[in-house]
């Protein structure tokens, strides 16, 4: 049913308004398709309405709840009071919040900025010249680890890291090591590097295709080492891609909820990154107001990272 | 000369071969392990063997006999397909307009799309929970479909407008010169050219909806609308006294299969779709 909609809209208003047919002054603004502004708005409206109702409105609601003492149950659930910045202030004094911020920074730096970035680039770099089938195979393996449902992936890693009879313990000959309990953050960082490398690898693969082969050849002829080639020849070409990639994977990692499935933040908050902290505060602790305030702080952190990135990107030009 | 080049490439090739082997093992071991578990009998589940000693399909038979799983699978398929179709249709309309025309609201749309990439999904859970409970959408199909569409829309608009921008708009002009109406131009010229992009986007959106856990677990309360990723965490096996490892493995394999099939069949398109926006932007 919905598939017929665009055509219906189009045919109803034929012919297109004459004013949109003139050759425009700006190429991007030229209405080549003869859509007409009104109709263009009509095309975008359904998407905008949905985004407004199910994304912007809840987001605003989050901001509102963040300044109240709203709770899941009890007196404050029936009649939440506006408490101003009290939630934000108590976050600043909350040791568990500090812990969550620190773990999130660790998680993002370790698994995204370093882990996924380096592994993704290394794979893209090493796979440049190999036979297509080999490249395709490696690509699909890496893609798979990225694309599998997070519940399945978490379950897979349980099997690998299991204390008794886990694959890792069998491989390393360390029976009885409970990886997720003894080294929760290290396990999560390795896990997320494994999980997310695909995006970096694919992005760098297409970025590397844009590096002129002649320059690589020149570097080889003057006897540049692999590292020198990457630093002086390749990097200047792909700087923008490196920044874009780092920004995206950092944001995804900071917002990632999968750690909850692996460790649920435990043991004793040792792997409680911010999204897990927010979820536990909201749904387990019932502190909806406080949890919303913390989500806002996470969003602000993300915006800050994005601004730094934009500055770096602009400096290039 | 040729011989020299040959030994050099041979050395490099073997280095690559080793590296690739490591990558393949690294990526595949967990998946194969789960497959192996799903074919093991209850007795041999914990024997630590990579290849099952006794093969059995009992785990699969068992999960397909529990209404819990079958229901969840139905929910997953229905919800993911409906969400994908609607998100792709709405996304195509919006992306076409975004790629072809400046209009009021365009900046807002692009800005919101960027903001969504930064918004922690977890922070929307409690407001959506409240909203859905107050309007009666909680624990229904639309209660999951609508948020999925919303979360998929920015992604599909982003990817699709990258595809639309690649189609030279002289084509529409030419079509109009030949007397085609805008509707005909869209249907006969643009739609066929955009089809690969639309298809790619549909795969990505489907995967997004199919894989979601957070909304599925927070916006449902019974098997009436619980999808497989959420149901999996409630899974206790076919009978109460049975170790659920085998059943969970089988269920995990069942929801993984469509994704693996997608990756194998449409790898190139998925890669193109994932990198198109980011590389050009």
TrEMBL record, chain B:
Cellular localization per UniProt: Cell membrane
| Superkingdom of source | Bacteria
Keywords, alphabetical: Cell membrane, Membrane, Transmembrane, Transmembrane helix, Transport
Q: What Pfam families is this protein classified in?
A: BPD_transp_1 (PF00528)
Q: Which residues form the signal peptide?
A: none
Q: How does it sit in the membrane?
A: Multi-pass membrane protein
Asked whether the keyword Membrane is assigned, the reply is yes
User: Which positions fall inside the ABC transmembrane type-1 domain?
Assistant: 73-266
Question: One biological-process term from Gene Ontology?
Answer: transmembrane transport
* Cellular compartments per GO CC: plasma membrane
User: Membrane spanning segments where?
Assistant: 16-35, 77-96, 108-129, 141-164, 185-208, 248-266
Q: What is the protein's major site of localization?
A: membrane
Under the heading InterPro entries, the entry gives: BP-dep_ABC_trans_perm, MetI-like, MetI-like_sf
Return the similarity comment. Belongs to the binding-protein-dependent transport system permease family.
This chain's protein is named Carbohydrate ABC transporter permease
- List the source organism: Solihabitans fulvus
Q: What is the lineage of its organism?
A: Bacteria, Bacillati, Actinomycetota, Actinomycetes, Pseudonocardiales
């Amino acid at each position: 049913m919905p598939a017929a909609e665009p055509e219906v809209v189009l045919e109803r208003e034929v012919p297109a308004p004459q004013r949109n047919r003139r050759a425009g002054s700006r190429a991007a603004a030229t209405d080549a398709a003869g859509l007409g502004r009104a109709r263009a708005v009509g095309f975008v409206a359904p998407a905008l309405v949905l985004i407004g109702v199910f994304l912007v409105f809840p987001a605003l609601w989050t901001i509102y709840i963040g300044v109240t003492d709203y709770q899941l149950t009890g007196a404050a659930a029936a009649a939440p009071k506006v408490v101003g910045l009290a939630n934000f202030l108590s976050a600043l004094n909350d040791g568990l919040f500090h812990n969550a911020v620190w773990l999130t920074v660790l998680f993002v730096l370790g698994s995204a900025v370093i882990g996924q970035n380096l592994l993704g680039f290394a794979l893209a770099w090493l796979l440049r010249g190999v036979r297509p089938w080999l490249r395709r195979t490696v690509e699909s393996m890496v893609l798979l680890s990225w694309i599998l449902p997070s519940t399945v992936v978490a379950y897979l890693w349980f099997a690998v890291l299991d204390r008794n009879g886990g694959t890792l313990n069998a491989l390393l000959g360390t029976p009885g090591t409970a990886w997720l309990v003894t080294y929760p953050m290290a396990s999560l960082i390795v896990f997320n590097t494994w999980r997310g490398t695909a995006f970096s690898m694919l992005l760098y693969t297409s970025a590397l295709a844009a590096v002129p082969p002649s320059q690589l050849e020149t570097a080889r002829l003057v006897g540049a080492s692999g590292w020198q080639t990457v630093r002086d020849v390749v990097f200047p070409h792909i700087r923008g891609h490196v920044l874009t990639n780092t920004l995206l994977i950092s944001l995804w990692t900071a917002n990632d909820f999968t750690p909850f499935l692996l460790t649920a933040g435990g043991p004793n908050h040792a792997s409680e990154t911010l999204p897990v902290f927010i979820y536990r505060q909201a749904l387990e602790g019932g502190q909806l107001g406080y949890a919303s305030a913390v989500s806002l702080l996470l969003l602000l952190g993300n915006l800050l990272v994005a601004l730094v990135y934009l500055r770096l990107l602009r400096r290039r030009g | 000369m040729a011989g020299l080049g040959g030994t050099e490439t041979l050395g490099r090739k073997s280095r690559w071969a080793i590296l690739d082997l490591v990558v393949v093992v690294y990526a595949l071991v967990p998946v194969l392990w789960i497959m192996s578990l799903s074919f093991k009998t209850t007795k041999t589940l914990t024997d630590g063997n990579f290849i099952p000693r006794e093969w059995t399909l009992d785990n699969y038979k068992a999960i397909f006999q529990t209404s819990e799983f079958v229901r969840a699978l139905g929910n997953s398929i229905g919800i993911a397909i409906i969400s994908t179709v609607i998100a792709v249709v709405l996304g195509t309309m919006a992306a076409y307009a975004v790629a072809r025309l400046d209009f009021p609201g365009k900046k807002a749309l692009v800005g919101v799309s960027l903001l969504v990439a930064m918004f922690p999904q977890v922070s929307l859970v409690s407001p959506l929970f409240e909203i859905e409970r107050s309007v009666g959408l909680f624990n229904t199909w639309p209660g999951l479909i609508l948020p999925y569409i919303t979360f998929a829309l920015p992604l599909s608009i982003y990817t699709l407008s990258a595809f639309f921008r690649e189609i030279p708009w002289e084509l529409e002009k030419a079509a109009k010169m030949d007397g085609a109406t805008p509707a005909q131009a869209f249907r006969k010229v643009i739609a066929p050219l955009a089809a690969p992009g639309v298809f790619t986007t549909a795969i990505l959106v489907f995967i997004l909806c199919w894989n979601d856990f957070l909304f599925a677990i927070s916006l449902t309360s019974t098997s009436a609308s619980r999808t497989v990723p959420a149901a999996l965490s409630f899974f206790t096996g076919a009978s109460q006294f049975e170790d659920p490892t085998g059943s969970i493995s089988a269920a995990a394999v069942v929801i993984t299969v469509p994704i693996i099939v997608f990756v194998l069949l449409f790898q190139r398109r998925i890669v193109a779709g994932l990198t198109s926006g980011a590389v050009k932007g």
